[in-house]
Amino acid sequence: NRDSPKRRVRHGDQLLAVNGRSDSAEILLKEMKRGSKIELVFRRPASFCVHLVRKSLGARLGIEITHSANRSLVIQKINRGIVHDWNLAHPEKLVEVKDRIVRVNAVHGDSERMLAEALSRAMLNVLLHKAHGPANDGSREL
Fold first, then answer.
1. Are 77 and 64 in contact (CB under 8 A)?
2. Under a CB-based contact definition with an 8 Å cutoff, are residues 67 and 73 in contact?
3. Strand bridging mode 123-129 / 100-104
4. How far apart are CA 49 and CA 87, in angstroms?
5. For the ranges 5-9, 30-34, 77-81, which has the lowest average pLDDT?
6. What would the pLDDT profile of 19-55 be if each residue is shown by its tens digit?
7. Distance between CA atoms of 98 and 133, rounded to whole angstroms?
8. What are the distances in angstroms from CA 78 to CA 11, 39, 85, 126?
9. What's the chain's average pLDDT?
10. How confident is the model at residue 1, as a pLDDT?
11. CA distance 112 to 33
12. pLDDT value of position 22
C-alpha cells in the first residue's frame, strides 16, 4: 500500500483471486495460509451517487435491504417508491438489486446509522457501489 498509493487496497474492494485461484472464500483463505508469498487480485467497485427527495417523511424508499458486515446496506429488492421513481427518471444511473449503499448524507461505515438517516430525512444523498461491472480507480463520476 505504501509503495503504490493509487493501487492500495481500500474498504469495499473485492478479493477476486489468490495465487491465480478464484474459488470459494474457504479455498481463497486456505491458499493465503499455504505459502509465504501470495498474489492477490482485487476489483474496485464502480461508485455513483443518487439524490432522492421525499415529498413527505412518510414516503417509502421502496427498497428491501440487508446489512453487510454492519458497514453497508445491500439492496435485495426494489418495489414501488422513491428509488423506483429515480430509476424511471434516470435510466443511465439505475439503482439495482445487490448494489451496496455505503453512505447516506454524511453517514458512512455504520449500517444502523445509515438506515436511521435514510428513514429520518427528506433529502438523501446516497453513495452506492455497483454489485458488478467494470472496475475503476474510484475517480470516475457516473
1. yes
2. yes
3. antiparallel
4. 13
5. 5-9
6. 888 878 888 888 888 877 888 888 877 899 999 999 8
7. 12
8. 26, 38, 10, 15
9. 85
10. 59
11. 33
12. 83
Q: Give φ, ψ of 2 to 5 degrees.
A: -70, -35
Instruction: Count the residues in the chain.
Output: 142
What do you get for the CA distance between the two ends of the chain, in Å? Answer: 26
The reported pLDDT for the residue numbered 23 is 79
The H-or-E segment that residue 50 falls in is strand 47-53
Using an 8 Å Cβ cutoff, are 109 and 71 in contact?
A: yes
Please write down the HEC assignment for all residues of 81-112.
CHHHHHHHHCHHHCCCCCCEEEEECCEECCHH
Distance CA 29, CA 47 (A): 27
Among the ranges given (77-81, 83-87, 129-133), the one the predictor scored with the smallest mean pLDDT: 129-133
- The amino acid present at 107, given as its one-letter code, is V
Task: Locate 133 and state its grid cell.
Answer: 461491472
Grid coordinates representing 22 are 478464484
